[in-house]
Amino acid sequence: IDFDLIVESIKDLNSLVGEGISEIEHTARGARLRRPEPLPVTLYRNGIVVGHGAFRPYQHPATQQCLQDIVDGYFPSELQPRYPDGV
Q1: How many other β-carbons are positioned within 10 Å of the β-carbon of residue 70?
Q2: Which class is domain 3-82?
Q3: I need a labelling partner for 49 at 20 to 30 A (CA). Which of 4, 34, 60, 71 fits?
Q4: Cα-flanking dihedrals φ and ψ of residue 47, to 5°?
Q5: Which residues are within 8 A (CB) of 51 and not within 5 positions of it... i.e. 6 or more apart?
Q6: pTM assigned to the model
Q7: pLDDT per residue over 5-63, tens digit each?
Q8: Phi and psi for 19 in degrees, rounded to 5?
Q9: The 47-50 sheet, strands edge to edge
Q10: For residue 41, which of 20, 27, 56, 29 has the smallest C-alpha distance?
């Protein structure tokens, strides 16, 4: 596992979505600025945790696909149903 490559790819994806930039949230009384909630990815020697999910070993095919998506410069396809507008 090339941790440096994964971290660099995550940084690139974060910059694509404007990390740290506030969004307009419409409310009943108008609108306000809010920062999107980050989705943490924790890398361990033997696996990962995405968000507040379960530990996932690197040998698991879904974990391998998630990391391959990231390294290829894409948001993980497994997140599309929960985050259709991106993370």
Answers
A1: 21
A2: alpha beta
A3: 34
A4: 175, -170
A5: 39, 40
A6: 0.77
A7: 999 999 998 888 777 777 788 889 998 888 777 889 999 999 999 999 999 999 999 99
A8: -50, 130
A9: 41-43, 47-50, 56-57
A10: 56
